Amino acid sequence: MDILVFEFITGGGLRREPLPPGLAAEGELMLRALIEDLLEIPGVRPFILRDDRLDFGCLPRGVTATPIAAGDDPDRIWQDAIGRCDAVWPIAPETGGVLERLCREVERTATPLLNSPASAVAVAASKLATAKTLERHRLPAVPTSPWQARQDDASSALVVKPDDGAGCAGARIIRSGCVVIPGPGRWVAQPLLEGDSFSLSALFSDGRARLLSCNRQHVEKTGDGFTLRGCTVNALDDPDGRWQTLACGVAAALPELWGYAGIDLIRTAGGPVILEINPRLTTSYAGLKAATGENPAAMTLELHRTGRLPPPRTQRGTPVALNLERSDAR
Question: Mapping DSSP to helix (H, G, I), strand (E, B) and coil, where does residue 249 land?
């Protein structure tokens, strides 16, 4: 089985632009982890597209890489690669509709997509649409509104961020009395919540979910924004099933979610509050196998083959720290 793993940042998606080192390192971390997991599966042959400004020698043995050079047409090479594979696993930011576009292009070819469909990505990519969907299903979501509706609110601190932003990118803390013009595009406002940052990694299918891990996010306030320094995968156990229940609630609210997805949340004094849903691989994926002893790529392919989610994990595993400043696991 030939699987095209297309990590947008390292795979030539930015070949006509300067390559941001931080995004490239994070993309490389996820890409490498997924490839190594796929290489453990008998009969699976992963191949990738590769920005030729990046190192090729560091790739795991057994993966085939097609270079994307300065004069190449990345879109044409991507389309040709889809036609040469048995399935496609895209990893891309939701920002600017990139992930949704990639998923739609795969769907048009009828090639199996090892990610949530474009329709689910379209909802999850919008923080406003996600919050409204979760609220309709009575799930604890951070109150979210268009920035225009809150820009005269001087009663409390707000977080203003792009509606389709990824992670901490573009998020700004706005104190009362500040006059802010965020910039072009759609922006949303959310209250500044106090609490610990966590995420859930889970597999989804047909309105059901199977929790993989609960992860602590190491988020720091830097100036008027936030920076994700890293995460600890499998930081919390789930003895009473609360995290599994929350993942199931998200699955019921967005039944089109499929395969791996992440849920970002804040554990406040009043309980967990969902910030956003990432309908794709997240950074936490890179530590999952070491933390849980399970191969999430193999589980995803089995889900694709049988339509059945794996049974609950029986072993506790161990926490694994990922440091994004060094982009390695320890």
Answer: helix
